[in-house]
Every structure is written in structure tokens, then in C-alpha cells.
Amino acid sequence: MDGLNIPLNHILLVSSLLFSIGMLGLMIRRNIIFILMSLEVMLNAAALAFVAAGAHWGQPDGQVVFMLILTVAAAEVAVGLGLVLQVQKRFKTLDMDRANRMQG
Amino acid sequence: MSETIWIIPLIPLLSSVTLMLFGSRFKVSQIGALGVGSVGMAALLTLLLAAEFMQNQQVIQLSLWTWMEVAGFAPGISFYFDGLTLVMMSVITGVGFLIHLFSTEFMEKDPSYARYFAYLNMFVAAMLVLVMADNLLLLYLGWEGVGVCSYLLVGFWYQHNANGHAARKAFMVTRIGDTAMALGLLLLFTELGTLDIQTMVGEANQTWQVGDTVPLVACLLLVCGAVGKSAQLPLHTWLPDAMAGPTPVSALIHAATMVTAGVYLIARTHGLFLLAPTAMTVVAVIGITTSLMAAFTALMQTDIKRILAYSTISQIGYMFLALGVGAWSAGIFHLMTHAFFKALLFLGSGAIIHCLHHEHNIFKMGGLRTRMPVTFWSFMIGSAALAALPMTSGFFSKDQILLQAYQLPDIGPGLWMAGLLGALLTAIYSFRLVFVVFFGKANTEPDKDTGWRMAVPLSVLCFLAMVGGWFMIPVTEVFPVGDGSHPAHWVEYVSISVPIFGVLIAYLIFYSGRLKIDGLANSGLGKSLGQFWLSGWGIDWLYDRLFVRPYYGLANLLKGEPVDAIYGLIVALNQTFNHWLSVAQSGRMRWYLASMVAGLILVITLAANLSEGVL
User: Fold this and answer.
1) Would you put residue B81 in left (φ > 0), alpha (ψ -120 to 50) or beta?
2) Inter-chain contact B590–A27, Cβ cutoff 8 Å?
3) Largest Cα–Cα distance in chain A?
4) pLDDT at B388
5) Would you say B43 and B96 are in contact if contact means Cβ atoms under 8 Å apart?
6) CA nearest A101 in B: which residue?
7) SS3 of residue A19 by DSSP
8) Can the peptide bond before residue B234 be classed as cis, meaning omega within 30 degrees of 0?
9) CB–CB of A27 and B593 under 8 A?
10) Residue B409 and residue B195: Cα distance in Å, rounded?
């Protein structure tokens, strides 16, 4: 682990940047596909932070959690895409605001 | 007869209930027959009872059943009958019958004929229970019963607001006295363990000495009740207003029977009062003060019924004086004669009002002597008896009271003088009424004369008012007998001559006009004094300021429920927060997310700032 030694702070900075981008996407996007993608970005940002922390302290736990997040993300996408299909089928749109049935 | 005296109050009660339930289905003549017949039957039975009592002088004690039984407290529905009860029963059923008969003509055109007789019969039944009761609790039942009937009958023409107001006033003012009386009953029961009047008085004489505090307090509480019912100072204000009821009602309830219930109560419990001489003095002073106050007020009134109302208050004052000086039988005697002549006067005024298009103002009458001769002679005889002119019934009774008052040590002569002043005023105001109404020029023409159903009761009462003074009331066994001494002869002569003098004054002022009082009446002092007397010594005004207005003020203050305002504040706060929070609950996912992020950033910032020292 000599050659490439990036400081932890930098990785965490990238990770939080990714997380913020994902959250911003979640907040401003209307298309459900993009919302799902933003979610993926957020999950990966969190996973990156775990991996970096694991590498920094020389612990395997970080990579274990990364594997878990990967699985959860896969499952989430599977379910999420299934929902996307249903939404498209019922509302004939992927615009989340138009599919909103809640009475404010 | 002795085993069946319970029938006497039962008959009017049954008739009353029948009229209440089925009155609307009866014809007017049937209602009248039932209403009058039931009281007539009671009167007849009382007459039989009286005949029997005159022969054997037998006191009847009849226990029907036990009313209730709680921890040694077992008042019975039981009756006690002696000379005093007989006098009261005779007055109630006898005078009551005549007034019922009079009512059949007086109320003939009234749409609520059945209701009227139902109430009136109910009153007779309650009053009979009151005087026949063996224990104070049953007496109290009758006492409240007559109070309710009085309320219902004063407010009989309830369509007018003022009548309802008068009825409520009558009910509430007497309720003050009744509450005190209830306290008195409770005190007597806790101290003596019984409310049976005869047992109780015997027990009291063994437990207490003359002048002890407990009998004094108990007696004063009973006096409070009597004062309320009998319209004495300071609770007399309801009686003049109670004239809002039909006139026969005023005759029966507010002159002859109910208002004398207080006198009966004190006479019935005289054994207790003998243990509390202070209470007796209080009764005498209340009596004479009320008597004078009411007599002065009666001088100034212009409403014929209010004159008679104040004169009733004044005459009951004499009865209280008699009770206070220990002249028990004289007090009861005056009660009886007063029932005769005051019922006569009230029925006479009822006849005038009936025939004169409901006119009440005496100065709008005048000259009725030739137009309504029966009424004129009724008023002549009634006023003569009221003024206690010699040989009338009122003369005998009032004379006895005044002479016995004179014999009381210390305050006796003072009471006598005040009583004489009252007698003088009585003569003046009663003959003022006669001269103004029946002589002079006619101001209103009567549209009819009295029918036989009015004339007969008036004639019978005329007879009674004349000869009632010769009756011997059988109460010698009931009350302790005085020493039988007589004051000096000049005292009697003065007592006889004062009323005659009063009539003379009334004659000079109101008939011949020789004595001019206009100058006196229109002078500054005379005017304000007259106004003062006219308003009943300003007592109504005083009570209005002292009790009624503060009460209304308080009620108005509490109407907005200030205590609830605290809870109202909590509710208002909740609603405001709810409003704010419901704005946040917009249903837009994006806003929820944004606020979550904002909150997250806030929390992280805070956590970072706080942990700076740690890291």
C-alpha cells in the first residue's frame, strides 16, 4: 500500500460530494428513473466512505459493509424498477409529481 | 270521626289531582262544582268534627304510617288535632269554601278555569296538612306545599312578564325564611332527637332551662321561617307584589290563611318560645315595627289591592306582637277575625275590580255606594272590623292584644302606645279607602253588579266579621292561661276611642274636606315623606341595591365563564400549533425531503460544533 496513498480526508470529501449530488438529484429530479439513479449514487457514496475508512485503519469491516450495500442496492434497483414499470403502466407517466395522490 | 280526620285534607287533594289530569275534559259548571264541592265537603266535615270536639274536648292523635325511618329518625304521616287545629281548620275550610264559591263567578271567563281550581284545591289540602301535622317535618311539607301553590297562583296569569316576576319574588323571598326554618328543624332534631311537636316540647322543657342559648337559636331560626311566610320585616317585600294574582287568591292565600302560617307555627311551638324570652321579645318588636311600617305605607297607596296587602302585613304584625307578649290565644283570635274581615275586604275589592273593568286605582273609582250596595256594605263592615271599631270582630281581638301588651313589664306600655298609633293609622287608611271609593263623584261606571255567587260569600263574611268577636275559640287547653288581671280602666277607654278618632280624621279629610292636607302634602318635607311611605319605606329599593343588583352584576361577570378561559387558552394554543403544523403537511414529497435534509444539516452542524472540543 505504498505507491498510491491518498489521504482519507480527500476520499471522504469525494464521498460527501457524491452523496450531496445524489441528494440534490433526489430533491430536484422529477423523473422516477433519475430518482432511482440518484439513490444509487448516494448508496455508492456511503459505500466509498466505508471502503476508505476500512483501508485507513486496516480493517476488513469496511469491505464487508461494502458488499452488503452492493447487495442492498441490487435488491433495491430490482424492486424499484419493478415499481417503475407499474407506475408507467398505471399513470402513463414517470413524473413523480403527477403521480402524487396525497392531498396536501 | 276521630279516626277519619285524614279524609278532610284528602278530599281537596283528590279533587285537585282530578282537575289537573282531566280538567280540560270537564265543562265549566262541572269544574266549579268539583272545585267548590270538595272544599265544601271538607268544611262540612270540619263542622261535624267541631261539633264533636265541643262536646268531649278530646284531643286526637292519629298516626297513619311511618314516612321514613333512618337511624332513629322516624317522622310519621300523623295528625294532631286540638282546639288550635280546629280553629285553623275552620278558617281554612270555611273561609276557603266561601272564596271558592266567589271564584266561580270571578274567574268564569278565564280560559284556565280548571287549572285555577286545581291549584286552589291543592292549596287548601297543603294548608290543612300544615295545620294538622303532628310533627314539624310534615308541617314543613305543608309549609312548602302552600308556598308552591302561592307561587303558581301569583303567577297564574303568566302571560304577563310582571306577574311571573312577582311570583318568583314571592317564592324566593319566602325561601330565605324557609331555609332558616329548615336549619331550625335540623337543630331541634339533633338536640332533642325528635320532631314530634308534643314530645319535642316536653323533652325541651326537661333538657333546657329558661334562657338557654340552644332554644334561643332554634326559636330564632323558626321565627325566620315565620317572618318569611307571614311577610314581616325584613322579608315582607313579596306580599304587595303578590297582589298580581287573581283577587280571590289574594283573599285566600295572602290574607286569610297562608300568611298566617307563621303565626300558627309560633303558636304551635309556644312551649319552645317560653324557654327563650329573648326570642319572644324579638317577635314582639318585629311585629310592632312591621305593623307601623306597613300602616304608614298603606296610607299612601293608591292601588286598592296594595292598600289591603299592606294592611294585611300590618295586621299580622299585631298577631306577632300578641305572640311576642305571650298573648297566644289573643293572637290566634286575631288571626281568625282577621281572616273573616280581610277575606271580606279582598273579596269586596275583587267584586269592584270585576265590575269595574279591572280598575285598581282607588282615585278612579268613587261613588260606588249606590251602584254596588252589597259591596259597599261589605266594605263598611270589613273596614269597621279592620279599624277595630267597637262591637265588630276586630275590636275584640285587637283590644285583647293591646291590653295584654300593656301588661308586659318594662316595654309593655311602649308596645301599647306604638300599637295604638298603628290602630289610629289603620282606622285612617281603611276609611280613606271607603270614603274615596264609595262616596264622592263617580269616575268609572261599573258595567255589571255582583251575581249571587259573589253576593252570598260577601254576606256570610259580613256576618262573620260582625259577630266573629263573640266566638269563644277553644284554645284554653292549648295555651298557658294568663293571670287574668286587667289594666286600669282608662287604658281600655283609650284603646276604644283611638280607632273612632281615626275614622273621624279620615272623615274630615276624605269626605267632608274640612281638614285640608293639600298644603301639608305639597310642602317639601310632606312630599318627600309621602314618597318615602309610598315606596314602602324604600325597602324594595334598598334590597334592589343591596342584593339584586350585586347578584346580577356577579352573574353578568360569570356569564362569560372566566374560569374556563384558562382552558380556553390551552385549546387556542393547540389550535394555533395545529395550524402551523398542518401547513407543513403539504403532501409534497419534495418538501418533506428538503426539510429532512435541512434538519440533517442542522443536526450535523450542531454535532460538529459541540464535538469540536472533544476532537
Assistant:
1) beta
2) yes
3) 58
4) 84
5) yes
6) B587
7) helix
8) yes
9) yes
10) 33
